[in-house]
Each structure stands twice: as C-alpha cells, then as structure tokens.
Task: structure prediction
Amino acid sequence: MPASITYTYEYPRPALTVDCVVFGFEVGVGVGVGVGAAFKVLLIRRKLPPYEGQWALPGGFVQMEESVEAAAVRELQEETGVKDVFLEQLYTFGAVGRDPRDRTVSVAYYALINLQSHPVQAATDASDARWFKLFELPKIGAKIETVLGFDHAEILDCALARLQAKIRYEPIGFELLPKAFTLSQLQRLYEQILNRPLDKRNFRKKLLKMDLLIDTGQQETGVAHRAAQLYQFDLEKYRALKQRGFSFEL
Amino acid sequence: MPASITYTYEYPRPALTVDCVVFGFEVGVGVGVGVGAAFKVLLIRRKLPPYEGQWALPGGFVQMEESVEAAAVRELQEETGVKDVFLEQLYTFGAVGRDPRDRTVSVAYYALINLQSHPVQAATDASDARWFKLFELPKIGAKIETVLGFDHAEILDCALARLQAKIRYEPIGFELLPKAFTLSQLQRLYEQILNRPLDKRNFRKKLLKMDLLIDTGQQETGVAHRAAQLYQFDLEKYRALKQRGFSFEL
DNA sequence: ACAAAAGTGTTATGATTACACCCATGG
DNA sequence: CCATGGGTGTAATCATAACACTTTTGT
Result:
C-alpha cells in the first residue's frame, strides 16, 4: 500500500467499479452418453477481503484513462482470460451499503461466450475461476446465491432476467453457440435459458421461415444417431433486415 | 470554493453524476381550436461553464450518503421542482472525454411526468427550465441536439429509443396522462411516441379487450363535439395479471 | 435389431389488419 | 346546420399451437 501517492478532491467521490456476469452454454456433448446441455455462469473465488474465499463476479476498478466499458473488457480478460466476446451493459448498482468497506458504485455488464472457442483460464495470475450451472437442480440458483459476496446475487438475477427477455427479441443466443450448430442445439439453448420446453416442429418452422440460418452443407459427426445438419446464423442479412424494420421474435 | 476541506484517495476516482431525461405529454387541449398533442422533453439552461448558457439535461453529482437513484430524484426536484414521478435507470455513460473538465461518469435516468399534475417550476433557485417539443417539425430533434452540451444529445436519443421500445410492452404510457383520460388521448400518445398512425378501431378493441381500463362513468367536458368517456388504468389488476404471466402488448 | 435423436405437415384456433359510417355536442 | 371528433363491426389474412410417425446412424 503506497502511503505517499494520493489523489485529492474538493468533494468526496464514490469508488467506481465494473462487474461482469459471464454466461456460457455447454451444448450436449457428442457421444450420446455425455448427456445434456447446461447453462452456466463464471465466478471467481476472492483472494482478498471482504468476502475472502467466497465466490463473486469478476470485476474491478475503473481506471481514469479507460471508458467504463473498456474497464469491463479489461477485467474480464485479466480475471478469466476471456476476450473478444459479446458484452453489454446491464445496470448500475448504486445503493449506499452495497460494499462494506467503502462507498462503491458498480456498473454491471453481462457477457455471452461460446465455450468451444473460449476456454476459460481456470486460474489467471493465481485467481480461481469456475463455471457454475444455473438451474442445475431445482433452486440451486438460490444455493449459489448464498455463497456470493456483495450484492452479486442481485446482479446475477438481473442479468438472467435481461437475458431471458432479450433472447426472445434479439438474436443473441447465437453468441453462446459455436459458429456452426444444429437446430436441436439451438432449441436446447432456448429451452435452458427460458426454462421451459418448446415444440420441435414449431421451433424449426419459425426459425427456418426467417431465412437467417445458412445451411453449411456440413453435418454433425461422431453421434450415435442420425447426424444433424449444421447451420450458421447470417448476421449480415439480419443487420440488413433489421434496418428495414424486421424484428427477430421467438 | 472551500480551499481547506478535501478528500484524498490512494487511487484517482472519476466524478459520478446523474442526468435525467424528463418526458412530458401535452394532451390536445379542450377547446377544439387549441390543437394537437405534443411530446416534450424538459431541459435546463446552464448557468455555469462548461457549456454555459446552453441547454442540458437536469442532473448533478451523486453524494456519498445517497444511492444513485436517490441522487436522480433529488436533482430532479432541485432543478425542476418535479417529484413523485416515474423514474427508471436508463444507461451509464462512461466515455473518457465526455466531460471536458474532468473524468466524469454519468448514470442517466428517464422520468415520465403528467403535465396536468406536475407543473414545472420554470425557474428554481434561478435556474431556467423549459419544455421542448420532440418531433415538432421534421428533424427538429436534430435541431435541439445541436444546442445540448456534453453527450446529452446521445443520452436523449437513448432515452427516446428506450421509451419507444418499452411503451409497447409495459403500460408506462399512462404515467404521461392525467389519471382519467380518453381513449383518443391515449391513442394520440402512442402515435406521438411511436411516431406513426394507429387504427382507431383496432386500438380501442385491443385495449378494451385487456380489461385493464376502468370506465369512470365520467365524460370529457368543454369540448365542441361529442364528449368522450373517461377511463383510468387499473394498476392493481395489471400487477396481479403480470404475476400470472400476462404481458401488456400494443 | 435396437437405441437415440433427426426430420417432417396438417388442422384448428386466435390475433391482426383493413376499412366507412352514424352520433353527440358546441358554436 | 355545420364542424369536430366519438364511437362502433365484419371479413380476410396470418400466426400460433397442438400433435405422431418415419429416417438415419452407431453400437
């Protein structure tokens, strides 16, 4: 702790931090045995007080020479090794008592990452990062939350609510899948996030009718059943349609 | 400027402010001549540099002993005299150069007020507050924006986009109307905010079918044509339905 | 040959759109 | 008696929801 260098202001200032809720989706693994899809959040174990040893959202202080969003990108990379992912501002948490040490206001972000192309460094400079399943068992969401420090359970709830709402009217679910995916993987993703079953035929009909999925001509390999067609989301076409008033709706 | 009392920190801290986008809706006035509805924003004229003399969003610094939201409520009251209104967090603006003097991060809110019950103090402690019409003429939105200081034009655009989106799936439009209103006033409100015409019969059918409007039994008075029925929005019932999965959709 | 998931159409119902005239009131 | 906006119904189209069997592949 440098006792010498300090910064002085005429009025007191809250500390400003960012926190990131990082969501990932494990598509059902190939071999048939491996079983089901899982929707997950990335947490890191705190090495310092307060809440030392407990799990928390990755995050940290906003520096003077970076934008708030840049701080979120940086902290995500530093604490989890994750970069180049979908990141969107969620909400700013500014209650007076939310940090027991100091007045701290935190701008929360949420990130969507595809576990195939972004393997997480489980430990970056000795920090401990781990994926936790949401909805693993009935109300394990609640279990996780009792373990989270600060108001991070509230932030996680807020992020989940946002994702559940937004995935229905923006094509952001694709950020959680590999570039090429099957329609069943996409359906399982929606089912996991919305936490309810969807009708297979209606789901496929609706998505294919939008004409935003490109058939890659490739198929799944190494599965013990009929191989599924692989598709890619046509982001270019989506952007063009959106300009003209098209709305992605599931 | 008190030169003596200061606050020092080990690391530099951005200043933290709030800004409020206050929307109001002028229902068409009674007498037939008075003409049309108008959708408006409340701005204040800056008395101090930077951007002295220009128009800006009401706002100010977050104090240590108040939540960020409380700061927004307080600033709104201090600068415009408005209180007890719908207020929701919009977005946090944290670009590095957004304030020319100092690194400042601003949490923006938007408020919806009903001009009947909340007349604005045009001047509170000598500050100058005024309503500006959005969409007054084609692209006068752009005209206002050239006059706004900081990144307030961007904040205003963001608030407008949010309102346009949200009014379609949450019953927040009622915040802009008097408690009792006619269906035509409500329709004009939607038309103004969404900036497109709606079919009268379909609009009424849809709203009445939801069964969330209470017929007050009262009628409009002082109009030079058949008097319209006055309705109130049934907030209690809406909350109950929402719990059970109902979604307000226009 | 069995297990496991892929793929595929039809029908019934409800929602959305488009559209034009008579009514009540005040001036 | 005229001008102004209030109030009303129907028919065509489109979107949604419910539902079951055959196909392909690996073991």
User: Anything to note?
Assistant: The interface with chain A takes residues 1-2, 5-16, 61-62, 64-69, 71, 89, 91-92, 94-96, 103, 105, 107 of chain B (CB under 8 Å).
